[in-house]
Amino acid sequence: MAFEVEWTEPVIKDLETIAGYIDREWSCALGDKFVDELIERVKVLAKQPFMGMASTRYPSIRSIKISKHNRLYYRIEEEKLVLLNIFDLRQHPAKNKHG
Prior knowledge:
YaeB-like fold, 5-stranded mixed beta sheet, 2 helices, 37% helix, 28% strand
């Protein structure tokens, strides 16, 4: 049984920002590909929610790498995955509020 997935406002905003950047700098096709790959990763995650790595600072928060430069942070609440944010790994680690 797959967990229900909750897309929070911060993760939606992060996704729009990243996809928009990819669209502008490379192509709409690559931006769409990024979104499609994220959705597929979330579908797998909904079936296997504990596959992500636990945060060292916040053990209740887990993460999975979704691309070379991005990591998705989420929390498990009963039978639900709450997607928290997408962090660009090229940023300074101190900016990562969930890591």
